[in-house]
Design goal:
The chain has no helices and 31 strands. Helices cover about 0% and strands about 60% of the residues. The protein has an 8-stranded mixed sheet with strand order 13-14-15-16-20-19-18-17, with no helix packed on it. With about 300 residues, the chain is mainly beta. About 30% of the residues are buried.
Length: about 300
């Protein structure tokens, strides 16, 4: 399930190939169905998008029509923005919002950039152990030296709070001219960053366990830990006030799927559900496919 959009729910159905299907919320009647070869569907800031490595389409949930399209040598999503890269010497990057409207660039960047993001004003890129901030003309307006290298991911949360993931560590830094002051650090890998009730959070997992720590992005304090999250297939679906963690085990039939919803601030568990059927979660809707082949939609 990709999400509920006004009067339509959009689901992805995969057999030999995948297709998107729009259903009427009230009746369940099929509104449209479209195949997208080699495409990956996602909801970005409330917009339905289908992407490949080289192309992204903005899809109308009511009709399945493509409203906008971006093409490039390589496209990737970072912090709800779309990065379109044209390879060359040097490379060229342009940034688009969730409506596929250009909001930055194109600007030239060095080919050995390991990670990047956009803070709404500047393009932030990682070069070895340094962060560079580029303006819309491609000029470097700030450089901040880090105490780490091997940077895999950069994410911006709040004013001046940059979250960085390396091979084995997640840290928060406040970049100033010439250096980046560390706010906090935690061993593990980053499983997501979210703006939620009570401020922003970072999800951090440890390769040595199946647990996920929900960490306050500003302070580094652990709000709560969700144990036994990581299974054969797992993901988190955030809302403003709750996180739904899903774990599916495929070791032996019948498959067992467990869903648990937690309050972002207190860590209190709202509810949990288990089933031998399959669950899928989209924006504002939960779908269950039971062992008889029946599909049920929940709020």
């Amino acid at each position: 399930v990709l999400g509920e959009f006004d009067d339509a729910v959009v689901i992805e159905v995969c057999g030999r190939e995948c297709e998107l299907v729009g259903l009427d919320v009230s009746s369940g009647d099929e509104l449209w169905a479209e195949s997208f070869a080699d495409g990956t569907a996602a909801v970005i800031d409330g917009r339905l998008q289908v992407s490949t490595d080289e192309e992204v389409d903005l899809i109308d949930p009511a009709s399945g029509d493509s409203l906008e399209r971006v093409r490039a040598d390589f496209v990737a999503r970072v912090d709800n923005y779309l990065f379109a890269l044209e390879s060359g010497r040097p490379d060229e990057v342009e940034v688009f919002d969730a409506d596929l409207v250009s909001v930055f660039g194109p600007v030239e960047v060095e080919s050995d950039v390991s990670a990047g993001t956009f803070d709404g004003t500047n393009l932030i890129v990682a070069l070895e152990d340094e962060l560079q901030f580029l303006n819309g003309d491609g000029d470097v307006v700030r450089e901040s030296r880090l105490g780490v290298s091997d940077i895999r991911t950069i994410s911006v949360i709040g004013d001046g709070n940059v979250i960085i993931e390396t091979d084995d560590e997640v840290l928060s830094v406040d970049p100033v001219d010439g250096r980046a002051d560390e706010r906090w650090s935690e061993r593990g890998r980053m499983a997501g960053t979210y703006r939620v009730d009570g401020g922003a959070v970072v999800l951090i997992g440890d390769d040595g366990s199946d647990d996920i720590d929900v960490v306050d992005a500003d302070t580094g304090d652990r709000r709560f830990t969700v144990d036994d999250v990581l299974g054969d297939e797992e993901f988190v679906r955030p809302t403003s006030n709750a996180a739904v963690f899903v774990r599916t085990e495929f070791d032996s039939p019948p498959n067992e799927t467990t869903l648990r919803a937690f309050d972002w601030v207190t860590g209190d568990e709202f509810w949990d559900e288990s089933s031998s059927g399959l669950f899928a979660i989209g924006d504002g809707v939960l779908l269950e496919l039971d062992d008889r082949g029946d599909v049920t939609l929940y709020d």
